[in-house]
Amino acid sequence: MHMTRYHIKISGKNKDAMADLVRKYKINIFNHGISYNKEVGYLVDAMADSEEIQLLEKNSYAVEILENLDEVGKIRQKEVGIGNRYVRQSQPQPQERLSSSENLATTLDNTLSYLNVDEVETALSVAASAPHTTITQLIPLPESTWDGHRCSAIKIANGSNSNRLGVYFIGGVHAREWGSSDILIYFIEQIEKAYHANTGVTLGSKNFSPSDIQTIVNTLDIFVFPQVNPDGRNYSMTSADAMWRKNRRTVSPNSHSGDCVGVDINRNYDFLWDFPNCFNQSAPVHTSNDPCDHDVYHGASAFSEPETRNVQWIFDNFKNIRFFIDIHSFGKDILYSWGDDDDQSTDPNMNFQNPIYNNLRGIIDSSGLPDGPVYKEYMPESDLSLAIDLGNIMKSAIQAVRGTIYTVKSSDNLYPTSGASDDYAYSRHFKDTTDRKIISYTIEWGTKFQPPYAEMRKIIQEITSALISFCLWICNNPGRISFIGENSPLVQDEIEIP
């Protein structure tokens, strides 16, 4: 029986107690932030039902109930588009697509509701139609989802020089984070419309000139996959469980009952996927190998899911990709690698491929085992410096729209992750020297998974500003990114830990 779930804020007196929220109580922690208040201690946002809340309070946690998520979800579902705004009804003829020129002036510029799943896919088809065929290519992806959806990505570029840098954006990974797909469709539409009209883009108080847009399209290959998880997103938008996070795999290879549904797409990539063997046993890894875990089941194997294989396919088939952003909510964070532990740039031997460290990973800001060193994940200083600087470019671009301040930080926090897209993207060139280095990010937008759409429209502008600024900086700073083509093989000697 489904129990009502609440968005709560949990406080505890020390980090070990907060680690127990995942490690012991299996609470669904929402974002990458753990804050500290000297009066109440450490604070995190989470989701819990009434029984879980009672258990936490019984064990000396302070819990503040912020909202009834099931009630809010029902309200937000009324703000999902009905029908398909990218087609028009011609009686008695069947629906036909709007032309791109008709559509771009009337859809996400003025819409008052979230795009539904069909609208996102149709929007991509429209964006790849005339008059944009000279700069836009629709990319059908090879894998059908469990519910039979076929997904597409899109490439925006004017030119085909083999030396062009590729930038790759994905969204719609977690089902309940509806606005991520809308952000990427809006980004596509704004870039296309401005490029062909030779105009700029204005987002709140942030302005991009016509030459800015021309430079981006004429310099970069931009790959956009806006709806990675259409099954889950549709389920979240239409069922009683608006807080659904995973895909909709209905047959679990680890469950005889068949009642356990779904895999967390962002725990299914091939980066330390086998977390029980790759992390310290006491590490509060925000991942699960329980097929019945409601939120973070990592699947039967890395890349077991068609959704992650579609994301991987783009990496494998467009080898010029050097930058990657996965768009999520929430937390107002711009996150760079790594997510399994803190970063370090001094010891290449201490890295995710070295099994000698399997019993140390994931103890953030601690001493690891009593007799062992602190584990930190290796990242060359030049990569780390670029990741931070480019993150700050996006932060400034977001703030310029209406003053909202985001935080730039590494993806790890008290709750390390395994199998996440950003770490997988950055790790590829370490594991295979034929792959090129990819600087990767996760953006966690906003302060709710499903804000009222009036607020979502403002967030869409903020993150679009970040993405355009991201692309423009890459175009204008070739000296800073000249090393991107270099590989950085890791040392894997199994030295004895003192």
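Next protein, fold it too.
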Amino acid sequence: MPGAQSTPAEAAADANRPSVLGKTLVFKGELAADEDLILQGRVEGSIHHTQSLTVGIDGVVIGDIHARSIVVEGTVEGDVHGSASVIIAATAKVRGNIAAPRVGVTEGALFNGSVDMSRATAASVGGYTETKASSRDSALAEPSVDRILAR
């Protein structure tokens, strides 16, 4: 119904829903955001993100990525820096270095680069500072990780 007010539950659900940048998007330059994001289009430039970022199967990033938790299902040509975790799915093609305290590379992924899992490299990324060490259980409780592991 036009003009209808959303309930508090609907508003909360919308606030927790990630933004999606579709397949036809082509963006050149620096992209920054403070909300969960799913990228299905192409970004040529760096991404600085304080929340979760998923590069979808159709997503392409030519540049470095900085975010809290990152899932790559598509193509990335650049370094990937996660302050919490980086997951490389079986469908991913990554050419670049990965730096995060927790890194997972699924069998079948194409990956060419190095991995640095030291705390010092991931302590502060894109303005987000990790204040305490997270347990293995909390890392695996990430919704994006659950989605990858369920496949």
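About the second fold: The chain is about 15% helix and 40% strand.
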